[in-house]
Design goal:
- The protein is α/β, with parallel strands linked by helices.
- The protein folds into two domains: 195 residues, Rossmann fold, CATH 3.40.50.2000; 167 residues, Rossmann fold.
- Helices cover 42% and strands 14% of the residues.
- The chain is built from 15 helices and 13 strands.
- A seven-stranded parallel beta sheet has the order 3-2-1-4-5-6-7, with helices on both faces.
- Helix 11 links the parallel strand 11 and strand 12.
- Helix 1 crosses helix 15, helix 9 crosses helix 13 and helix 11 crosses helix 14.
- The relative contact order is 0.15.
C-alpha cells in the first residue's frame, strides 16, 4: 500500500462532537521539542503545535501542549504557544525516562480533569490514568537494527512499544510499513492503528545567503549532493561515503555535503580521501531548505525509516532523490525517486552517478517529485490527528 495524504474532513455543527466544549480536549506531549536533538520527531511535534490549535478552534475543542519544567522563553523559542502550554513540575529527561521505565509520575489529577485524552507524540509515554491514550509510533528501527542503538536506548524503546501495545486506545503511525511492524512484532490489531502520513512545508524565504556562506566556509567549490539526517548508524552514512568515494572520478566536480546533528555510533571514517565530503552539522529550517534548492540531488540510502521526511523535503524543493528500496521509503517515494539496495555499496555508487549525470532521469524525477510532495501537508497530518482525537473521545464517553 502506498502512503497517501489523508483527506480533510469538514467541521461538524456546534455541539455535534465530543464532550465538553463540542470537540475533544486533548493534552499533547511536546517534550521532544526541548530535546538536544529533536530530529524528525521534533519536526512532527512542531507541525502539530502549529496546526492542531486551528483544528481545535474549528471544532470548538481545545488542545494543551504538555512539557516538563522549562522557562517560558525556551518554550517560545521552539514554537510552543505559551497560552496553551502546560509546564509540569518535573525536569524533562528525568520524567520522560521514568514515565516509561517506572510508569510514574502520573499526570496531575487536576490536569487530567480538564482533558478528554492524552497524546504521546514520541516514545515518552506518560501514565494517563483514566483518560484514553493516543500514541504515535514513528518507527520500530530498534527491533530491525538493534546493533545500531545503545543498550539503554534499545531497552527504553522496547518498553515504550510494549506500553503502547498494552495501553493505547489508538496508535498513529506515519506509514503502512510501520503499521505492519506493529502487527507483526507487537500484535497490535490493525483496527487500533491509523496511518497519518507526515507533511512538508517549504519556508516562504529560504536562507539562500546563509547557505552560500555555509558552503563557502566548508570549502565546497562546485556542485554537490546532499545527505540529510541525524548521524547515527541506521542512516547508512559510512556506506554512502564509501560509495561516493568509489565514483569520485566519475563525478570529478561534485561534493557530498552531510547535514544533521550528531546522534550516536562510530564517527564517520571513510576509507578514502574525504576532501570532497563535508559535514555541515545541524542547521535551521530556512537554511536547510536553501541547501536543498542549491543541491544537485538528495542521497538518502537509509537502512530503515518509519517515513523518511528528507525524501519529501527534497522533492518539494525540486531536486531528484536517491533512496532505499526498504521499509517505508518506497511507499513514501512512489515512482518519484531512484531506489537502490542500501546494503549494496556498488548499487548506491551507480545510483549516485545516475542521480548527478543522467539528465533525462533527473528531469523526470524532479517533475514527479514535485507532484508527489504536493500531496503531503502538515495541515492534513493535523486534520487526521484531530479526527482521531474526536473518535477516541466519543468512544470514551
Amino acid at each position: 500500500m502506498t502512503a497517501t495524504p489523508p483527506d480533510r474532513e469538514p467541521a461538524a455543527a456546534p455541539g455535534e462532537r465530543g464532550p465538553g466544549l463540542g470537540g475533544p480536549r486533548a493534552g499533547v506531549v511536546a517534550e521532544q521539542l526541548l530535546r538536544p536533538v529533536p530530529g524528525g520527531v521534533g519536526r512532527y511535534v512542531r507541525a502539530l503545535a502549529t496546526h492542531l490549535p486551528v483544528e481545535a478552534a474549528v471544532d470548538r475543542g481545545a488542545v494543551e501542549f504538555l512539557v516538563a519544567r522549562h522557562p517560558p522563553d525556551r518554550l517560545a523559542a521552539v514554537g510552543l504557544p505559551l497560552a496553551s502550554t502546560r509546564r509540569l513540575a518535573w525536569p524533562g529527561r528525568l520524567v520522560t525516562r521514568t514515565w516509561v521505565t517506572l510508569r510514574r509520575p502520573g499526570l496531575p489529577g487536576g490536569l487530567l480533569d480538564q482533558l478528554d485524552l492524552v497524546h504521546a507524540t514520541s516514545a515518552a509515554v506518560p501514565p494517563t490514568g483514566r483518560r484514553p491514550l493516543v500514541a504515535t509510533v514513528h518507527d520500530l528501527a530498534f527491533r530491525h537494527f538493534p546493533e545500531a542503538y545503545p543498550d539503554a536506548g534499545r531497552r527504553y524503546h522496547e518498553r515504550s512499544a510494549r506500553i503502547v501495545a498494552d495501553e493505547a486506545a489508538r496508535v498513529l503511525v506515519p506509514s503502512e510499513a510501520t503499521a505492519r511492524d506493529l502487527a507483526e512484532l507487537y500484535g497490535v490489531d490493525r483496527g487500533r492503528v491509523t496511518i497519518t502520513p507526515l507533511g512538508v512545508e517549504v519556508p516562504p524565504e529560504p536562507d539562500h545567503a546563509g547557505a552560500g556562506r555555509l558552503l563557502r566556509d566548508l570549502g565546497v567549490r562546485g556542485p554537490f549532493l546532499l545527505a540529510v539526517g541525524t548521524l547515527e548508524p541506521r542512516k547508512n552514512l559510512p556506506r554512502l561515503l564509501d560509495a561516493f568515494g568509489e565514483v569520485s572520478d566519475e563525478l570529478p566536480g561534485h561534493w557530498l555535503v552531510v547535514v544533521g546533528p550528531v546522534g550516536w555510533g562510530p564517527r564517520l571514517r571513510p576509507t578514502w580521501d574525504s576532501v570532497r565530503v563535508k559535514l555541515a552539522g545541524p542547521v535551521g529550517d530556512a537554511l536547510l531548505h536553501a541547501l536543498y534548492q542549491a543541491a544537485d540531488g538528495l542521497a538518502y540510502p537509509s537502512l530503515y525509516e518509519g517515513f523518511g521526511l528528507p525524501v519529501l523535503e527534497a522533492m518539494a524543493n525540486g531536486i531528484p532523490v536517491l533512496t532505499s528500496d526498504r521499509s517505508s521509503l518506497p511507499e513514501v517515494a512512489g515512482d518519484a525517486a531512484l531506489l537502490v539496495d542500501p546494503l549494496d555499496r556498488e548499487a548506491i555508487a551507480a545510483g549516485l552517478v545516475r542521480l548527478a549525470g543522467d539528465q533525462d532521469l533527473r528531469g523526470r524525477l524532479v517533475e514527479a517529485g514535485r507532484r508527489r510532495a504536493a500531496g503531503f501537508t502538515w495541515r492534513a497530518t493535523a486534520a487526521a490527528t484531530w479526527s482521531t482525537y474526536r473518535e477516541v473521545a466519543e468512544r470514551a464517553r
